[in-house]
Write a structure and sequence with these properties.
754 residues; alpha/beta; Rossmann fold; 5 domains; 6-stranded mixed sheet; 30 helices; globular; binds NADPH dihydro-nicotinamide-adenine-dinucleotide phosphate; binds pyruvic acid; binds magnesium ion; NADP; Malic_NAD-bd_bact_type; P_AcTrfase_dom1
Length: 754
């Protein structure tokens, strides 16, 4: 099934407008519950830090958010490749940069859109904002004003300032270029460059390539008016630096070129131009959102190409998102007074080298790759690689210290890396990984409850995202009416009504097959025909006969009703005595897997062992090492009672059967996470260094209460219940599931079916 790469306009608009409009909010970091809290937070308590800062201005870093707060500032004159669309229209991009700063490097951002094109006014405004911020990320300001603005601010401010489109892009593309040249065995000194674009990004990137060894005489640059050449009278200073003597067209200049750098606009490069390039051409078409040539056209033109774009949906994403979060993290952490050449070079080489390291499982899973390895389609690390933070930020911090810009040097690098690792928001990483895995090999998913607005909206999303090929079960007229009412676009999606006349031959086929399975369990041929009119049975039979790969059901039914058809029609995996259910809770500390949350009221020791095994195998299939804790009210024999005893026995059996697994118990829930306490009191425990991620409960009440409490009070995102132990993926949605929860369930079902 071809992945639909184009997002729907309405989805993008809905994403931004739903709930609290926009993508960011301010949250408090201190207690605010009592009158005393408020007296400390504000008057009279707040006077104390004020006076301390007045006495020692550096204390502003100790008592306020300044040290972790970056301003993303734009005037909207060069928003992505959309051009001068103004400060308000640029705000979604600036909020987006803020979001990326947060999720990749835990940096807080205020986005600031300035209504001015005047350089003096811009500089003065940012200058007077300096007390608020630990750093300034200038964004999407057009050339040539961006150069003067950045130069002046760098000189006049004592905090790090970086124009991301210039230097972020230069660092990333510089690293990618070094690696691409190494792969094709070419020397940067001899490489012939064509640069499309002569603005902020293009000029700075080209300057970086010269610093890396490229020769100016090998570079020909173009803007909208054609080649940057000495004959032209409309060039600004930095462009003149790259001017060639006489006029030439891009089609002529690109013949025999080794590298094409696109930092201009959509579709300016043709397949013929790429065909005329030298052996093993390197093409970085980095205009956003639409590159200078599409990935498909470029790779079709030349099989020996190394192709990169700024987009996340193709290999080799060369985009400054790989830089700004980590560069600022390093600069803030040593309280650098600026971002200098040494820091930029350190980031470039750190990125280039990281691409050559073995790729961790979580990254392979996120991109559904078996083994990403340094080569033509992996020249630069992937943005979701957690090592970016722990590699690039320390490299930048070190360079700041060595080049004299750090005012608060780091002494213990190991401790620093641990602090960095803890900063990573892991709450969404697993969902991203599962969704990406699903997209790479989408499967047929049958939705038994398609006569539901929520289900249909979820179907729209999974269809658009290319997560699956949906099949809708239900009354055709009713479903079509709902699709129309909600203005959904589901043309081409199959709708099957098990009661419709034209479906009866298939329904009879299914009824016969069901009768064969159940004839010794009291089912008559007439019963089977009746049962097949029910959508959950019909859907389960579609999965059983291979007409679909997974079944999503249950939004309007109770749990046993929906599990029963799956058990009767599809059945349990070989050797499995009981199915069970797992909830995945996405916490800031990483995913937690809770079992059995769904099926078994009071599992026996043997059943607990099976539940733990099914859960662990499922966790492993997501590329995560399970660390299992069997929970109850007793810690390692401190209390007696039925539950304590059965959890103790189940732990012993699991440890004996799986000596390589981390299995601990019986224990109270807090002990599963409090490694300090475990170290002190139970130093023999396998959970003394790292807490548990798989939690096995003694009974359904405990599990159900735990996940519901965590979900509601912790406001956690979750996926579940994921049914374990069936031969094929069938998932039962809980009443009240949201679109997002359904999408996550579909993704996990598809990932399981692969
Ligand atoms: N992948 C990444 O990480 C990044 C990508 N970019 C992309 O680079 C592009 C430029 O951004 P930026 O430098 O900030 O903007 P600027 O406005 O500073 O520069 C744009 C440049 O592109 C030139 N240009 C526009 N249209 C064409 C065309 N049809 N043919 C040749 N040149 C053209 C402009 O020429 P003229 O002056 O004559 O109009 C100008 O030189 C955008 O598409 C942006 O998305 C930018 C930063 C990072
Ligand atoms: C990626 C980016 O910053 C841009 O396209 O402007
Ligand atoms: Mg930009």
């Amino acid at each position: 099934m071809e992945e639909k790469k184009n997002l729907r306009r309405q989805d993008a608009l809905d994403y931004h407008s739903k709930g609290r409009p926009g993508k960011i909010e301010v949250v408090t970091t201190k207690e605010t519950a009592t009158q005393r809290d408020l007296s400390l937070a504000y008057s009279p308590g707040v006077a104390e830090p004020c006076l301390a800062i007045a006495e020692n201005p550096e204390d502003v870093y100790k008592y306020t958010a300044k040290g972790n707060l970056v301003a993303v500032i734009s005037n909207g004159t060069a928003v992505l490749g959309l051009g001068d669309i103004g400060p308000e229209a640029g705000k979604p991009v600036m909020e987006g940069k803020g979001l990326l700063f947060k999720i990749y490097a835990d940096i807080d951002v205020f986005d600031i859109e300035l209504n001015t094109k005047d350089v003096d006014e811009f500089v003065r405004t940012v200058k007077i904002l300096e007390p608020t911020f630990g750093g300034v990320n200038l964004e999407d300001i057009k050339a040539p004003e961006c150069f003067e603005i950045e130069d002046r601010l760098r000189k006049e401010l004592k905090i790090p300032v970086m124009h991301d489109d210039q230097h972020g892009t230069a660092i990333i593309s510089g690293a990618a270029l070094l690696n691409a040249l190494e792969i094709v065995g070419k020397n940067i000194q001899d490489a012939k460059f064509i640069v499309s674009g002569a603005g902020a990004a293009a000029i700075s990137c080209t300057q970086m390539y010269v610093q890396l060894g490229a020769r100016k005489e090998n570079i020909t640059m173009f803007d909208k008016d054609g080649v940057i050449c000495l004959e032209r009278t409309n060039l600004f200073g930095k462009q003149k630096d790259f001017a060639v003597p006489t006029h030439i067209t891009m089609a002529e200049a690109i013949k025999g070129a080794d590298v094409f750098i696109g930092l201009s606009a959509a579709n300016v490069l043709s397949q013929d131009m790429i065909r005329s390039m030298a052996d093993n051409p390197i093409v970085f078409a980095m205009a956003n959102p639409t590159p200078e040539i599409s990935y498909e056209d470029a790779t079709a033109a030349r099989p020996d190409i190394i192709m990169a774009t700024g987009r996340s949906d193709y290999p080799n994403q060369v985009n400054n998102v790989l830089g700004f979060p980590f560069i600022f993290r390093g600069a803030l952490d040593v309280r650098a007074t600026g971002i200098n050449e040494a820091m930029k070079m350190a980031a470039t080489y750190a990125l280039a080298e990281l691409a050559k390291e073995p790729v961790p499982d979580i990254v392979n899973i996120a991109y559904n790759e078996k083994n990403l390895t340094f080569g033509r389609t992996y020249i630069i690390p992937k943005p979701m690689d957690p090592r970016l933070l722990t590699t690039v930020a320390p490299a930048v911090a070190k360079a700041a210290m060595e080049s004299g810009l750090a005012t608060q040097p780091i002494e213990d690098w190991e401790a620093y890396e641990q602090v960095l690792a803890k900063r990573l928001g892991q709450d969404n990483q697993l969902t991203r990984a599962i969704v990406n895995k699903a997209k790479k090999d989408p499967k047929k998913v049958v939705f038994a409850d398609a006569e539901s607005q929520t289900v249909l909206k979820a179907v729209q999303q999974v269809y658009d995202d290319g997560i699956c090929e949906p099949i809708l079960l239900g009354n055709r007229a009713r479903i079509e009416k709902m699709i129309k009412e909600d203005r959904l676009e589901l043309e081409g999606v199959q709708i099957i009504d098990p009661k419709a006349d034209d479906v009866q031959p298939l329904a009879r086929e299914f009824a016969n097959a069901y009768y064969e399975k159940r004839k010794r369990r009291g089912v008559s041929p007439a019963d089977a025909e009746q049962i097949m009119l029910r959508r959950t049975y019909f859907g389960a039979m579609m999965v059983e006969t291979g007409k679909a790969d997974c079944l999503i059901s249950g939004l309007t039914r109770n749990y046993p009703d929906t599990v029963r058809p799956a058990l009767q029609v599809i059945g349990r995996q070989e050797g499995i005595k009981k199915v069970s259910g797992m909830y995945i809770l996405l916490t800031k500390k990483g995913p937690l897997f809770l079992s059995d949350t769904t099926v078994n009221f009071n599992p026996s020791v043997t059943e607990l062992v099976e539940i733990a095994e099914l859960t662990a195998i499922s966790v492993e299939s997501l590329g995560i090492k399970p660390r299992i804790a069997l929970l109850t009210y007793s810690n390692y024999g401190t209390a007696d009672g039925e539950d304590a005893e059965k959890m103790r026995q189940a732990t012993a059996i699991l440890r004996g059967k799986h000596p390589d697994w981390v299995v601990e118990g019986e224990m109270q829930a807090h002990l599963a996470f409090n490694t300090e306490l475990v170290k002190q009191q139970y130093p023999f425990s396998d959970l003394a260094e790292e807490g548990a991620n798989v939690l096995i409960f003694p009974n359904l009440s405990a599990a159900n209460i735990a996940y519901n409490l965590l979900k509601e009070v912790g406001e956690l995102e979750y996926i579940g219940p994921v049914l374990l132990g069936l031969k094929k993926p069938v998932h039962v949605l809980q009443l009240g599931s949201t679109v997002r929860e359904i999408v996550n369930m579909v993704a996990i079902a598809v990932a399981q079916a692969q």
